Amino acid sequence: MARVVVDVMLKPEILDPAGQAVAGALPRLGVTDVASVRIGKRVEIEFTGEPDLAKARQLADALLANPVIEDFTVRVEEAGRAAPAGAIDAISGVDPVEPDVPAVVAPRRLDPGTPLVAARPVEAAAVAEPADGAAPADAVPPAAPAEGEGGDGQ
Amino acid sequence: MSRIGVVTFPGSLDDRDALRAIRLSGAEPVALWHDDADLHGVDAVVLPGGFSYGDYLRCGAIARFSPAMLSIVDAANAGLPVLGICNGFQILCEAHLLPGALTRNEHLHFRNRDQWLRVEQTDTAWTSAYQPGEEILIPVKNGEGCYVADPATLEMLETTGRVVFRYLRGNPNGSQHDIAGVRNAAGNVVGLMPHPEHAVEALTGPSTDGLGIFTAVLAHLGTAVPAASRDRR
Fold first, then answer.
1. What ipTM score was computed for the predicted complex, to two decimals?
2. Which of A99, A149, B84, B216 is an S-S bond match for B47, by CB 3.0 to 4.6 Å?
3. Which residues of this protein are catalytic (chain B) (predicted)?
């Protein structure tokens, strides 16, 4: 059984205020060299038989993504070779050091040399297949800064 | 007497107020259920506010595929008047009955207040009770009410008179062009983020300006509007 992964991202021209809020919080972790953060969704589909990319793409277009505001990519991931449960921890990979840090401390600053996210297991490497017309993720320009503008009209 | 249906989805919030507004306007309210494809012969449909299916995935994305909505999409394409309020507007956009989409408020805050609107178009099934350019005061309350569309769609909406309501004196959510509501080309389908059903009585609303939405559809359906509802101010 294999897994189809659908990644859904807001189109580059659509404002992502939640991503901006995350970007705004990064300096509290001592990270000051991030130009922009954008947040998307990852959907994992387990077919009972062979993974059906065409069907997954139809699902993504009809339901999982709203093509008015979102782009998506569809790919097959070899689930059989990835550890089913533990893999999540490895991927999300929050720095596991300092387990005895007191609960209430000043904002923890990351060592500049510490990777924020652990490398993905090589076994789980996937073949990306972009949807029709979808721009590659690295082509997304940074969002225009909108902090302090517009919005609250009260 | 005209019969106007209100669809209740799991997570609908304002279905009762919508049914009540319909009754106050002089029509017979009919409760419809999301899992029932039968529209029970209603003359018009209101999709109420709330959080259908928990707003999971995207607001309105799952409601769009409910049995009731599949029937409503067909009926709307055949001319049935359909009004979407707040979550109902989101559902209409997801169902592609209306263009554009509603996204997270630009400032990320849930915004709940009385809101001035300008009625830009009165030649729809739902807005003929107003004067062109009339300013009305009705509540707005949403977290994902920021109307967006691509530049070509916005241009089309503006040049073809399909922006029905526009925010006045402050845009509560960052909507492009201050758009609060839009219509389809035929004018039988209208969606708006603010809540006319919460402005139908002096006791509970900031005005009775919302009643005109519901009396307008009765006029559209050819029903005589009761005298009690005609003088809504």
1. 0.83
2. B84
3. 86, 195, 197
